[in-house]
Design brief:
3 copies of one chain form a homotrimer. Chain A is mainly α. Chain A has one domain. Helices cover about 75% and strands about 0% of the residues of chain A. Chain A is built from 8 helices and no strands. The longest helix of chain A has 28 residues. The termini of chain A are far apart. Chains B and C meet through helix 2 and helix 6 of B and helix 1, helix 2 and helix 4 of C. Chains A, B, C: Belongs to the UPF0126 family. Chains A, B, C: It comes from Tardiphaga alba. Chains A, B, C: It is found in: Cell membrane. Chains A, B, C: InterPro entries: Gly_transporter. Chains A, B, C: This is Trimeric intracellular cation channel family protein.
């Protein structure tokens, strides 16, 4: 398992930075002040894992044990203020980094639940919470209906990635290969979904009835 | 206590399904996609108990220990998409199921706190959190001011139910009788409140002063 | 440490009451009913400490161990309904009480994290969460973008107070003196920020790009 961690670690750092930066842009759209930008960056990047750990009773939380993660994510959010005017040029890079974040966080979250010997369904859910909940908190704090529930194949990518990871580990394949495969498939799925504008059918219900 | 659980169990399943279905309708009003509908169903139905357990440090959470609850509530939410057009015909049934949910969740939540030997006030609050917080999370995720704080005797019903339950158990009555009484009184109170449009006085404050 | 607690205790009670009262006014602006007012008062006053404890795994929570705090804060919120019409006359007093709350909660939160031997950065963050998160929850439940992220030097005051407190304790000064100093500096900083309308620069980002 430490080997797996080592494999995922650099990608996780990239993912944290990417999530913090997208949060900073959302904060800028709400005209938050600099400290608010830094805080929203930390909360978005680290919130998914924190909620997972509080739900599973898995203490201490990652950032409590490794407080430098607060500096990394808060710093990345602040740095985004300086480069925001160029961000639209790097729009594609951002989408790719965010997709990497989704997939990597999912695998890490599933990994945590597996190390606690949770049942398979909880492992998938733990991965999904880790990958997706940070963005939900960001949207709630920005007073939006969370994008996660409305648009794009985001949670679906997380579920597919989690299932692949768990399936591979359960069938006794080498963790390195399983991670590589889950990562590749998840990332491809997410990028195709963005590129081809795949969407899940929506449930439109209109009624005065409470 | 296992006997009590057995008594409440079938009602709790009905309550979970009812809460998931009302959440699905709320999701449909926000045009969420199918996976969003399923997720909002799970979060609404299981959120109250989860918040209670995290506040009390009562691990593992119910759905983590019994993951099939995620399938039950997510499935109920998805099924609602198919039958939404007929739902208005069953409006009254929905209100009754939701009321059953409120009362049953309250008793179950109070029960959990009692089994932890919490003080009486905490037992009432634990019941109220279990019964009411799922709806609060649903409203926050749908970007509404929670109904709980604004309208209808909902939390009040939960408090009365909880007090009856605790009072009966504390005075040494048989759990079966106490549960039946608390259930009957709570449910009647809630249905009367809906029927007769009972409301608590509101606090209307209007000022520019922050 | 018990001595420190004794020193902070009366101020903490004042702070809880102040936070519950400002929450009641926010509830009144949303026309919440009386029970909603009481609940928002409890959640706002006790929410910051609760989130800190859940993040750190520090059980039992303060109000679970001392349930009378629910009566104090809920009662203060209810009392506010009766005196709301006079509140604008006491606007300044409110701002001072709220500032006291911010500083006292920060010191108490930092204290909790120190007693758990958390690293220094986590101690500062624990203080900030305790001082600031209650107001964030209040704003989310009132369907506003949290003020904390947008305006006023609020979190900044919390950080400065926390740093002073930790610095003093770490350098071996007497806790009484450190608390008095951190309290005085934090309160002065906050009141000057209000009086002189100090603000942090804002990050304004406008773009259609997601």
């Amino acid at each position: 398992m430490p080997h797996t961690e080592a494999l995922l670690f650099p990608l996780a750092m990239v993912a944290l930075v990417a999530e913090a930066m997208t949060a900073a842009l959302a904060a800028g759209r709400r005209n938050m002040d600099w400290l608010g930008v830094a805080m929203l960056g930390c909360i978005t990047a680290l919130g998914g894992g924190s909620v997972r750990d509080m739900l599973l009773g898995h203490y201490p939380l990652w950032w409590v044990q490794s407080p430098y993660l607060l500096l990394l994510t808060g710093g990345a959010a602040l740095a985004t203020i300086g480069i925001a005017q160029f961000v639209h040029r790097f729009h594609t890079i951002f989408l790719i980094l965010d997709a990497i974040g989704l997939v990597v966080f999912t695998i890490m979250g599933a990994n945590v639940a597996m190390s606690m010997n949770q049942p398979l369904l909880i492992v998938v859910v733990a991965g999904m919470i880790t990958g997706c909940v940070g963005g939900v908190i960001r949207d709630v704090l920005c007073n939006d209906v969370p994008l996660l529930f409305r648009a794009e194949l985001y949670a679906s990518v997380s579920i597919v990635t989690g299932l692949l990871y768990i399936g591979g580990i359960t069938y006794g394949l080498s963790p390195d290969i399983v991670i590589a495969a889950a990562f590749a498939v998840g990332l491809t799925f997410r990028l195709l979904a963005i590129r081809l504008k795949w969407e899940m059918p929506k449930f439109v219900y209109d009624s005065e009835t409470k």
